[in-house]
Amino acid sequence: MKVKQIAVFLENRKGRLCDFAKILHEANINIKGMYIADTTDYGILRVITNDNDKAMKVLKENGFNTTVTELIGFKVADKPGEMHKVLKLLNDSNVDISYLYSYSELGSNQAAILIKVEDNDFVSKLLLSNNVEPFIEN
Questions:
Q1: Is 5 within 8 Å of 68 (Cβ atoms)?
Q2: Phi–psi pair at 123, nearest 5 degrees
Q3: Which of the residue ranges 31-35, 107-111, 134-138 has the most confident prediction, judged by mean pLDDT?
Q4: Which domains occur in the chain, in start order?
Q5: SS3 (DSSP) at 17
Q6: pLDDT tens-digit profile of 111-123?
Q7: CA distance 79 to 82
Q8: How many angstroms separate the CA atoms of 83 and 39, rounded?
Q9: What single string gives the DSSP state of each residue in 27-61?
Q10: Which of 73, 80, 86, 126 is deepest in the core (most CB within 10 A)?
């Protein structure tokens, strides 16, 4: 249920995101999901790849400032109300979500949801005990 996420500090300038993607492409690393939070001067790119360890290595070798964060990953059916069920469970258990993003593969009937919370162990146990399907990294 725990998923490693790479956080990359990006200067907010033309071509920097393209540079990031090129490095991963040249290393044959697939981007599975990503999210950018930005300000005027910089952005934090949060990304999940098919090989986070290799991605960290090649990004650092190419001058990118990176860190790893552990998230909780789970799956929901791709239909109305499924996300609400899990969010209600978390809310009723007083879990504060720092941020959330999701992705799904075309043709899939499920979405992977990734959340940043303060207590990963508590949330993992809570979700598993309520039959929420874990998302497992490849």
A1: yes
A2: -65, -40
A3: 31-35
A4: 2-69 (3.30.2130.10), 71-129 (3.30.70.260)
A5: helix
A6: 889 999 999 999 9
A7: 6
A8: 29
A9: TT--EEEEEEEE-SSEEEEEEEES-HHHHHHHHHH
A10: 73
